[in-house]
Amino acid sequence: MSDTDKLELLARIADALDRLAPPPPAAIDLNQADAFVWDAESADLKPVAKVNAVPLDLLKGIDLVRDILHGNTSRFARGLSANNALLWGARGMGKSSLIKAVHAAVNADNPGSLALIEIHREDIAGLPRLLDRLRAADRRAILFCDDLSFETDDTTFKSLKAVLEGGIEGRPESVIFYATSNRRHLMPRDMMENERSTAINPAEVIEEKVSLSDRFGLWLGFHGCDQDTYLAMVKGYVDHFGLAIGDDDLKAQALEWSTTRGARSGRVAWQFVQDLAGRLGDQS
Length: 284
Prior knowledge:
Layout: H1 3-20, E1 35-39, E2 44-47, H2 63-77, E3 85-89, H3 95-109, E4 114-118, H4 127-134, E5 140-145, H5 157-164, E6 175-181, H6 189-198, H7 202-214, E7 218-222, H8 227-241, H9 247-261, H10 266-279
Parallel strand pairs: 1-4, 3-6, 3-7, 4-5, 5-6
Antiparallel strand pairs: 1-2
């Protein structure tokens, strides 16, 4: 075979490989919407037409963490230094609601400044791929993972560690990561205890597991609320929607509702008000 024939053959092989190779992903346009959901299967962002968010001032009983997260997010939107945030603690106390409400509030003050991108817990392993596509985006973004936690034999937490602070490239300056979890250290205690009991150096096991939470500069704790706070949440929702009910009747019904649920929280308060609005014939 002559050199000319070899060159022609190599050219045909190269053309065939080009046809087989997938096309480069299209650039991400974060200006399509204010919120997106990451679809790991198609490696694309799905715009969200309307975010399920409540007004920031409706979130009662979490004033301190509300102000901290709002301040952190506002600084990030203005291009200043800001921290990744882990919102942990009691269920139903407004962790995910706060993230969505803060995002809406910051965008209301500075229209178009921030995109909110939700990534599902099971897609964390693909987070580096998403970040690669966001590096060239012209809009700042909050990556949001709700109910983040890891179970035994789950090694995806190592991918998250590298994305948050480690690795050569690190996290793009235009991206910040917010997560909610019922666990402060994102892993069940028995998982850490089991690994510690079989490890040559138990302290190193604990250090590795706890170091994931340490990647979050902000740890914002949410704790169960007392009766007065619960009633303040209920009253705030009732006033916001203009439901017609007397204070004494409202208190009695709200307390009865929390008793049947066996809990007091922002979620329980919201569910009670939803039921009350329905019984009163209000479509708010």
